[in-house]
Every structure is written in C-alpha cells, then in structure tokens.
Design brief:
There is one protein chain. By secondary structure, the chain is mostly helical. The protein is built from 9 helices and no strands. The chain has helices spanning about 1-5, 10-35, 40-60, 65-100, 100-105, 110-125, 130-140, 145-155, 155-175. Helix 2 crosses helix 4, helix 3 packs antiparallel against helix 4 and helix 8 (about 145-155) packs across helix 9. It is elongated, with a radius of gyration of 20 Å.
C-alpha cells in the first residue's frame, strides 16, 4: 500500500486511499479471480486498478461509498476483461497458426466477405449502449455462460438474459439494414 501512498499529494487523499484499500482489496481480488481464473493475473489487475485510482482519487473523495465502489469495480472489470481478451487473442493466434491449412482452402472472396461481416458486426456493436456491448462480447466473444456473465457484472441471470435478448434483436435490426440478416436472424 505504501507505494500507492507515495503517488498521492495530500494527506486527505492518502487517508481516503488507505480506507478504500483496506475496505475493498479482498473483494477486488476475488472479483478479478472470478473473471480471470488465475491468482497471479487477479493480483496484477488489482494492483493496476489501485494505480489507476491514485490518478482519479480527487474525483472520488466526495462520492458516497457505493458510488466509489461502483467506480472501482468498473475500472477493475475493464482491466480484467482487457487482459482476458489479450490472453484469448494470444491463444487464438496460436490456434490460427495451427489451422493455417484451413485458410488456404477457403476461397479469397469467401474469406473477404467473412472478414467484412465480422468488421461490420464489431462497428455496429460499438454503436450499441454499454450494457448491450458488454453482454454480447462476454456471451459470444468470450463464450461465457449467462450465469458467469451475471456473476461477473453483478447482475441477476434473468436480467442478463433480458439484456442479451434485447441486444440480439437490436443487432439483427441493424444487420438487416446492411442486408446481412433477415427478420429471422443472421
């Protein structure tokens, strides 16, 4: 904790940081561990979150404890998901190298069309509201189950199902405009 305190300017910030650190470090670790399933990575993400908090502490001092926790949790989850994506990409890159023979059997036009569709879906996804983006990315890109998503986002499974359903309907409507999907889906 002392390394973080050296980064703070005022005694008020240092006292506030100590309070946050003592109250939330364990819960942050367990949250990161649930997402990453790796103790070392979870510790790293908690450390990075605390470093980020030192940069934004002045904005948090006057917040309610719940608002401060929500801010901390948002930063932590984003850091965890970014690491998760990075590690998944590394695994996907290795798998892609192993399956290069499939690329050579695919027609260039088919490959281009598939890549263009994937690019369009990602652009459309970025236009959706944050909750839709998170749920769809976790569900389809990270292949997480509804229960896992609910736990990671601190929501009920029922709420995640509803968000997923609304997000998929919205995505299908957006894709219909581009002629990629019909009224029955992709």
């Amino acid at each position: 904790m002392y390394q973080y305190l050296l980064l703070l300017d005022t005694e008020q910030e240092r006292e506030f940081f100590k309070k946050l650190y003592n109250e939330h470090k364990n819960e942050m670790y367990y949250t990161a561990l649930k997402i990453l399933k790796n103790e070392s990575d979870a510790e790293d993400m908690v450390h990075e979150t605390f470093l980020t908090l030192t940069e934004h502490l002045s904005k948090m001092i006057d917040n309610t404890p719940q608002k401060s926790w929500n801010f901390i949790l948002t930063i932590l989850k984003h850091k965890c998901y970014n690491l998760y994506k990075k590690k998944k990409w590394e695994i996907d890159d290795d798998a892609e190298l192993e399956n290069m023979k499939d690329v050579f059997h695919e027609k260039p036009d088919d490959r281009m069309e598939r890549l263009e569709k994937k690019d369009l879906v990602m652009k459309l996804l970025r236009r959706m509201k944050q909750s839709y983006q998170e749920v769809l990315l976790l569900q389809y890109y990270h292949e997480m189950e509804i229960a896992e998503i609910a736990e990671a986002l601190g929501e009920t499974e029922d709420n995640i199902r509803h968000i997923s359903m609304r997000a998929k309907k919205k995505m299908c409507k957006m894709l219909e405009k581009y002629g990629i999907a019909d009224s029955h889906g992709i």
